[in-house]
Amino acid sequence: MQSISRKEVADIVGLEVLAELHQIREKTASFERKYGASYEQIESSRLEQDENFEVDDDLMEWKAYLRLKEDRQKRLEDFQHERFRVA
Fold first, then answer.
1. Which residues contact 5 (CB under 8 A, 6 or more apart)?
2. pTM: predicted TM-score of the whole model, two decimal places
3. Please, what is the end-to-end C-alpha distance for the chain in angstroms?
4. Residue 32 — very low, low, confident or very high, per pLDDT cuts 50/70/90?
5. 62: burial class by Cβ within 10 Å (0-12, 13-18, 19+)?
6. Does residue 12 carry a pLDDT above 90?
7. All residues at 6 or more sequence positions from 34 whose CB lies less than 8 Å from its CB, including other chains
8. What does 17-68 look like in DSSP terms, one character per residue?
9. What are the extents of the domains in the chain?
10. What angle do CA 7, 77, 75 make, to 5 degrees?
């Protein structure tokens, strides 16, 4: 049987989280390119515009990616500082 240290677990999971963060950043950047603005700018301007289902759908997806990004950044920080439990 092989054993693995907490640091090795943290490094492996940290790399996986970094890969996820890269994909999330690519997706949010594609929305920023598409609309030429940040999520916050587009969301606030939506109040003044007529209903547009494509923009509304994009905003929901964009917001989900932003929340996921926050979650993954917190997870990465936890693993970098070895703040996790092995079951």
1. none
2. 0.87
3. 17
4. very high
5. buried
6. yes
7. 58
8. HHHHHHHHHHHHHHHHHHHTS-HHHHHHHHTTS---HHHHHHHHHHHHHHHH
9. 6-77
10. 95
